[in-house]
Queue: 3 jobs
Job 1
Amino acid sequence: MTDTNNISIVTELYGNRGLCWNAIDGFQSFILIQKQTDIVIGDRVICNELVSDECTIEKIVVKDNSLKKMSANGRVQNIANNVTNAIMVLSSQPKPNFYLLDKLILIAELNACKINIVINKCDLDHASLKDSLNYYELLGYPVTIVSAKNNINKDNLLSILKGESSLLLGQSGVGKSTLINWLLQEETIKTNMLSQKNQRGRHTTTTTKLHIMNNDTYLFDTPGMENPYPNISDKHQIQEGFREMVSNRNECKYRDCLHINEPRCSVKDSMLSNESSERRHSHYVKIFETIS
Ligand SMILES: Nc1nc2c(ncn2[C@@H]2O[C@H](COP(=O)(O)OP(=O)(O)O)[C@@H](O)[C@H]2O)c(=O)[nH]1
Ligand SMILES: [Mg+2]
Ligand SMILES: [Zn+2]
């Protein structure tokens, strides 16, 4: 019997059906009523009592954040709600895309997520990638070095996931799917409820899923987060993704400065004085220009 005060977390969705989980009842199937179309993986919900093995959702608890992406047809889609930990995955091959990294950091900062950087494929030469990431470590983003394929440093990765709801982000080919499969070899609370009923309502093959690694550690599995969408209404918000701007902001002599090409803007000048931050500044300007 479901305790109606008990909050569950949505782990899978297939059309108007889905699964949610809590530590007491485990996994439970639910069916959505018509107006509950805005439900997203990671939502916290309060369920009604079971009726023939299925419950309905009484209430969606207010979410902390919402990660979105832009689909191929230009529509903004909700991918995951209540993400606490954004894991930026990079590798030496394919060639690292630092513009994407800076954009992902902006999105994670706007969603108040913790941010961790992971270098995967450490079996390949990654010295230059590691050097390029030193600056990020100075900004306060820890760098963890692993190989999913060669089973190197798994415990380090597990320790940054512990107690968090983590989402792996990064360009295609860096090894996100391989990392998830590797991590899920650990103890994971398995669903055995993927009934035919649920599978039939499935509308797309590219759905997000939330893995319950243990009672307080969750891992989002989401395909295609290569085109994340920053939900920005005011261009001043872009600075939130650039900690070096936020921390030096009071030194700039202009009020409401955008630190782009204002003469003798100390925030801009200080970023342009070093190679790593100069590149970050160019990404800041590029994001600024692409957001209208
Ligand atoms: N050399 C090496 N290759 C890896 C490692 N992890 C993943 N790969 C390979 O990288 C390629 C892309 O991996 P995939 O998980 O599909 O990347 P995704 O697009 O980010 O999900 C595959 O060929 C993997 O076998 C690793 O630690 N070392
Ligand atoms: Mg993949
Ligand atoms: Zn300025």
Job 2
Amino acid sequence: MTVPTHYSATQIVLHWAVAALVAAQYIFKDSIAAAWDAFRKGQTLPFDPLVLAHVVGGGLILAFVVWRLVLRLRRGAPPPPENEPTVLKSLAHMAHWAMYLVLAALSVTGLLAWFGGVTAAAQAHNLLKVVLLLLVAVHVLAVPFHLLILKNNVMQRMIRYAN
Ligand code: HEM
Ligand code: HEM
């Protein structure tokens, strides 16, 4: 496999689509939390489109994550910036794989809770949502860190593509 110089257009579109879908899962989380609470108490709630959106959005995230993983394994990713210290290269690599893993685990635990009524899966889902938030926070802070300290614009890597 030849190492690509850029992410492909598909990789970039999928990256931003997942980022937007994940943001929506957190912003509109109250409806699914209320629906789950009601389910646990044996109550029924009127139809709420935001509950459906959480379930469909989560399923879509899982599909996009699998697609991204296939692309990442088949096509690869551009090598990290040359001036990046080795330890940071390893950390970035681990953070990327951790995000894929946590996103997939969030979707699977969500599906198990919702369709299987598994309480332990809902508890894991609640824990994983915090882990993902921490990973994404570090991931986003890495952008200005690269720009200001290492003087390289990694943001360009997720904007400019080559197939
Ligand atoms: C839920 C939100 C996000 C997730 C789960 C996520 C996940 C990832 C993953 C897994 C990669 C590795 C590349 C790949 O395999 O496709 C990546 C790369 C990247 N992400 Fe994100 N990302 C998110 C949000 C953001 C945001 C908000 C920004 C910018 C403010 C950003 C900037 C970047 C950049 C610049 C790269 C390229 C890094 C490199 O190749 O060295 N990401 N992201
Ligand atoms: C990566 C995808 C997903 C993300 C980022 C995500 C995120 C979240 C967040 C932030 C909450 C709010 C918890 C709270 O603070 O009350 C939540 C709750 C919940 N989600 Fe997801 N979710 C995802 C996928 C799914 C899927 C696919 C399903 C079901 C098909 C699902 C079902 C649930 C359920 C049942 C709850 C309520 C759990 C509780 O309140 O204890 N989620 N999710």
Job 3
Amino acid sequence: MAYAAFRSIGAYIPPKIMTNADFEKIIDTSDEWITKRTGIKERRLSEAGEASSDLGAKAAQIAIDRAGISKDEIDLVICATVTPDFLCMPSTACMIASKLELPNVMAYDISAACTGFVYAVSVAKAFVESGMKKNVLIVGAETYSSILDYTDRTTCFIFGDGAGAAIISATEDKSEAIIDVNCSSDGNYHDLIKTPGGGSLHPCSQEVLDQKMACIKMKGNETFKLAVKTLTSDVKVMLEKHNLTNADINHFIPHQANYRIIKAVGEALDMNDEQTVVTVDKYGNTSAASIPMAMNYAYEQGKIKKGDNVLFDAFGGGLTWGSALFPFSPKN
Ligand SMILES: CC(C)(COP(=O)(O)OP(=O)(O)OC[C@H]1O[C@@H](n2cnc3c(N)ncnc32)[C@H](O)[C@@H]1OP(=O)(O)O)[C@@H](O)C(=O)NCCC(=O)NCCS
């Protein structure tokens, strides 16, 4: 049987910075309030005309180079995004494949909001273990700036743009294998985080434009409470299932939505600051890109070494949630 190894990580961080002080100029808020309520100090923005696939292709190229494979060896491209280049088609994964010059490759998108990258790990693992694919490129790429209402002071300051990517490859060495991925959802909570217009329920119309219905609307406070509860229980279930404790985890990488959420979850799980990766202060919430961007940050700081146990913990619109547990397994 083939196992699936998490071989490499990469990210593309757009250089353009939007600080809390920049938000003070456009909405009724303050750096002090945003910092205290979220821990966010700044976030990145793509340039006009720069789409999710542009960010994703740049992150992907880094992940491919670090995996030490030729791009021709990639036989599946999955892009997790809720800010695709185009509303319906072509998929952002197809655009990434085209930008990387990978013509004859299976490519498609996953829509699971902030949990998207963990869903992609789950699907890549299944494809590799089934023997259908050998080298899967997974990408989380978002340009939230394209769906934000910059007059909505309750939501617009939270999100940012960016992309992260990884290569998941077949191996026969069980010690390299992704241990487990557990993903779930509950659509009964669909109203908490939503882009209400522009889809088949409310197709694009003057009303959709006037009411900014294609922009993200979020019930922040209710989402906050569910996020803390779900992110905590998700990890407890994963660790118990594998007879592990928090001490077995070298790098705990939770979804980067709000520092208060990360802190509350970390405390409930007894994860210390050394184990827990935090980038929300620098990048805000980049949805499906948040976990791979955070992992890449720790990797580039020299913190993540071969064989280290990594634990992803994600939560987002849908609602969706999921966790992934694996040893980091670069070839060399
Ligand atoms: C959005 C969020 C930061 C708001 O923080 P909060 O502590 O829940 O704040 P509340 O919504 O209860 O609002 C508190 C007060 O701040 C005000 N407020 C809202 N936005 C503000 C802003 N940008 N600046 C200043 N004040 C603001 C509110 O109007 C409210 O005022 P009131 O008490 O006079 O009514 C927080 O709820 C959050 O991070 N939620 C989760 C988001 C998330 O995880 N999303 C993605 C999941 S993938």
